[in-house]
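Quick one, tokens below:
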């Protein structure tokens, strides 16, 4: 796929100087996560978020999620972060999350099975929390976790909403109920 190339050719406008305080690996990680989040949320073929959009971000304090939160916030959207602990909830708030939900609150303290009833139950709890705290279902779901959350993301996005995805760190074989994608025009 070209990601392991020793050399590549890019336009000069695509380059930025490496900050001297960062290693080459640190500098690459930042631009990789930031450009991926930008492509997913802002880019021409991404969600094209706009002011007032509710953007649900899984892993809101991780590399991708942290940038997604900041881009949503700075773009005038309402970032809703999902995190794994109270410590991460505080970090998500510092990044700009208006609303923070822990995995424990939605009953996702472990990876869900492929049982559609369990996925729907978690999706219902998450949807209710988002509606209670933000006023409506998410316009955009920033999904990069993969198998463990993809079905929930499809379920919880608003009718006509958008799920943007990449990565799939918990597995590439996503199981979801197609009725929530197809019948609700997501």
């Amino acid at each position: 796929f070209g990601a392991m190339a020793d050399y590549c050719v890019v336009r000069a406008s695509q380059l930025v100087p490496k900050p001297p305080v960062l290693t080459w690996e640190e500098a690459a990680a930042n631009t990789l996560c930031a450009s991926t989040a930008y492509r997913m949320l802002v880019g021409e073929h991404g969600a094209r978020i706009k002011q007032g959009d509710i953007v649900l971000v899984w892993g809101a304090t991780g590399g991708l999620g942290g940038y997604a939160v900041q881009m949503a916030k700075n773009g005038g959207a309402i970032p809703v972060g999902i995190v794994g602990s109270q410590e991460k909830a505080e970090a998500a708030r510092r990044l700009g999350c208006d609303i923070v939900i822990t995995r424990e609150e939605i009953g996702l303290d472990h990876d869900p099975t492929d049982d559609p009833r369990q996925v729907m139950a978690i999706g219902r709890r998450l949807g209710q929390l988002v509606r209670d705290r933000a006023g409506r279902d998410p316009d955009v779901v920033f999904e990069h976790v993969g198998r463990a959350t993809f079905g929930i993301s499809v379920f919880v996005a608003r009718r006509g909403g958008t799920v943007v995805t990449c990565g799939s760190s918990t597995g590439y074989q996503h199981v979801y109920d197609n009725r929530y994608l197809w019948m609700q025009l997501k």
